[in-house]
């Protein structure tokens, strides 16, 4: 086994050396360095080459089955691939909600035809997806959504409005929660529909955030006609798929916000910015706040590690995605508050690069709202983990 | 002194509330922001504020002002905080007026105070040199030169520096810190505007061999440190009042929203977890109000303990405004993050005003030292 | 007017000089220095003399009408009396739930006969009262109490159990919430009954607290017969009286716990105990916690002052008793936590005088429970002050 | 190293949980407290703990111990925390055993380690001299005298000092701090027992011209500071584990109560404000668990960063235990304040164990210094 893995490592290393363009071996510095793919993607030459090479091998999604455009690798092989990419400093060839969100749901709930149609295009970055969940009246109470899909012959006619659709203005397709059974109890009337954003009747408009521009849009559906075959899973059972995806998303947000790889700790930045007075930070009260934050941040990092290690060891870890989402995002907000204090008046600047810190701070305030508010996650912990009674 | 407003003060509060609500509400703030003009505030509004007596709130009646004192000034700033009003009130009517009243010669007072009250001259305090407030850490030098001084140095975070006619500059002289009145258009003064997260304007001011006259010394040579502390305390107390306005408006807006927004078939204000947080916040806003009123009264009475009350107020009001606006955004949920709603503006202003002239950490440390620990 | 007051001041000063025993002019040092009165009171000679002198003038309750044993003083005269007593360092002649709690309720809700019977004895310290409110199943949800009072001829027959009855084992009479209308909606079936603790069928047993001994008791009623004339207010309207009294109690507890007169601040104690390192406290992290606490404590003290000043100025202050109770008791708990940290291992001692600090700390934990929990007070602020909707 | 228990460790956890639940539950603690005996723990229980291998958990097999290491020791301490068990485990099996393993000569190890594993000899660490933990602030002196030293000084907060057969005393010698093994019955040793709020026993130990032999030096003359840090870190990590047990038991008890107690016609666990606080507390206990496990693993692996992980664990576990037990009492309401319920015992133990060998402030400060700020 170890021999086979070693062979795979040698082979992979050689292939990466040969196929990863030099430009793709530098750190991601700006938004445009991230490759999202899609029909209208504007990729640089090296980005295109790197995406095509990796897509052809299915290594954008190493563990998906080869039949669906994946790499068909084992867990251990995928780890080898990841470590070899890290070794090279290779960028991720493709960022994609299709990979992170829709893909796993498609693999679990999609029909064979749907898998064959959509997964390979996701793997190769040909189609860019967005997520149609929240509505103006249905935020935390997502299941009260009202976007309707009425069957008319072999098509659904979709009407309604979504908000917080990330990159809706750039996406090719949408996976969308719609109400197909208006008279059913609210969780039972929801279905999961896939459709082309180029369909007549779809319009989008961007949402401006307090931090400036934003990836979020409002999306309007006006008599959009969607083939009934684009229904994923059973009609009326979309809520199960939604919950599956939300759990997935929460873990991702909690972990991502918290441990954006290799970044400096608040204390390192503070020591650099404020300087030391003797052996200790020059601001005694801020130092107290920073050390408390770092104790929590460190203990939280260890908890993420422990959860992973327990999962690997096959030990049940409970429904901990809500804990990671809640605590991780609250910590990230706290980190940004502290960084604002560390920077003093410098961090109040708003325009150009000088405004990076204030925008990061403002952006972080959304962490505890998007993908399930802190309050919703505390509700979930109280009910599912602690089994406290309902009101 | 009783911790209540006098009848006169209650009238000033009502007048200020009405004026800013009508003439300079958050919608006016938004319009100014979107217009991106070079001044950053509405000069016509400033004229009206002068007519209302707000510009001269601290200017004695003998010099054409209203002479109403700090409690009144705080009430005006509180209304400014509620309405996010952009104006040179803090830099000119509070900082410069208290500088001249406390440290000006008879000639300086006679020349400048009427111009403050009438709104015709704008000032800016050029004191800070570091991103983190450290008022006595002054590296700018004033060397004797001719019958005056030559100034060299760099100032940061100079509020309204981009429009000021006159700068109040803190510089180091042989015997300590000295303040100077400097013409903003004098040779050697370079000013670069910076727009802040709350749309207020600060400037970097560079002084290169700027020649000032002996008559431009404010508060005596070497007497700048104590005077600077008095000016800053005036500004801090009024900022506490503005932060109180920010807190109160954030709180009121959020409570209204809790009564309207429905999720899970209920008003979200019926959820006990939010109720308890709102109730706690109510208490905190009341505490900030008490501390702020006491600080303003202490300044009016010239109490020895005024610096302690000021630091208490600035620390508490700053923390509460941060809490109130953060809770406001969180309880508004997604829409609270959008530029369409005002609550985000209050969060930005809470952060910036909280930072200005020392954050809660700075004032906590100062308070502890003043109390001997 | 001012002349009259001046005359009153001179007269009062002379009377106090003549009548306040020297022993009663020293600070209260131990529990036995507090005079609670009552049939079984064990008073020292000077305590007895001081109580009798003040009681005879009605100055134990200066503002109650003279007809009910009070001093009949105006607000301003009462202030003069208080300031003259402070001038002398005179102790309070009488501590009494009768004065603090039952008296005001009697004045508002009692019949003329009840006032004439009970108020003078309260004023002279002849009868010591206790309060029968909480029950084992009715803590925060006080109105769910089950102690029953059934009319039998011209007597009520009382059965049930009370807890947290302070000094029930030392009290002569009890004012007690009972259920007279078992079928009425729960708030409407409650009545307010006064009766003698020496009645057959009343037994008490002390409750031991985590801090050691305690003034609290459990009180049992087994077919206790109470004259129907001892009903205060209307039958079934006892809840109004209870609420009136609770509001009163909350203000008292919040204020008392917080500002136990003239005590040292945490920072003063810390500076003495830990010492300074240069100009600042020798423990930087504890110093941060202390300064945050003192900022809150100071701002809270100013808020109590402001509430009082506004009330004097006739400005509405809203239902602020819950705020004072909630915030004041939380601050007091925090103060005790900090004092424990200041003392280090010394404050962990348990026995004898060395254990004073740990017992004060443990005792303080009850502050946010007794007389309405913090949670109940937050509920009240949310509903009555902020007018947030019910669930 | 993966942050999970090995199979062997999981078995030790199950054995410890079962043993203490049966042999030394909170009811046993209550009984011992009420009996007010002079020992303060049950010597028979201690014999059983030795038989189970708990007394020798850190003693190498070569010296008759179980040699299981710190993760195992922590699991035993966690069960002790859950059950409030009174025993000399910390002072003898953790502190003295790690002192001898890390610093003992071959003779000392051979003499004392088997006696620790068998439970026959009790030790106490006499290090602290101030009420607030400051381990290197040692005024006790050891002057050269005869073929050894003469000790003079006062020690405070000596855990189990009243029953110890042997004291480990930290004293100042010419070249730094030196540790000594001192017979508790030696002339000049005076011990005064103090009962603490959590019913643990500490003692004031006074040393007056106490003569010790050169062979009684532990870890070399002048080598005491580093050794003391190692001993203390062993104790701190195991105290973190005990605090974790206190937190977990407080939390579990409280959650059970929330599911039973009714007010206003509902289970109080259905009130959202309490639910959110309980959910937050759940997260905090999980964090304390991760930090504690990591610290124990770091000690077992002899990592350089072990002191950082230990301070992290002690600070976090101490704060969480305070929060968990305070929230526990508050959510129990009035009955939580009565001596009849156990929750108050956990609050007392959380406070005392949190204070022992440095509270969260001490360890926060230490951690920051170790990290260079």
From TrEMBL, chains B, D:
Flavoprotein is among the record's keywords: yes
Domain Acyl-CoA dehydrogenase/oxidase N-terminal: 6-120
Domain Acyl-CoA oxidase/dehydrogenase middle positions: 127-210
Protein's UniProt name: Acyl-CoA dehydrogenase
MF annotations from Gene Ontology: acyl-CoA dehydrogenase activity; flavin adenine dinucleotide binding
CDD domains on file: ACAD
Alphabetical list of Gene3D superfamilies matching this protein: Acyl-CoA dehydrogenase/oxidase, N-terminal domain, Butyryl-CoA Dehydrogenase, subunit A, domain 2, Butyryl-CoA Dehydrogenase, subunit A, domain 3
InterPro entries cross-referenced by the UniProt entry: Acyl-CoA_Oxase/DH_mid-dom, Acyl-CoA_Oxase/DH_mid-dom_sf, AcylCo_DH-like_C, AcylCo_DH/oxidase_C, AcylCoA_DH/ox_N, AcylCoA_DH/ox_N_sf, AcylCoA_DH/oxidase_NM_dom_sf
Domain Acyl-CoA dehydrogenase/oxidase C-terminal: 223-369
SUPFAM superfamilies: Acyl-CoA dehydrogenase C-terminal domain-like, Acyl-CoA dehydrogenase NM domain-like
Required co-factors: FAD
Organism: Glacieibacterium frigidum
Keyword set, alphabetical order: FAD, Flavoprotein, Oxidoreductase
One Pfam match: Acyl-CoA_dh_N
Family from the record: Belongs to the acyl-CoA dehydrogenase family.
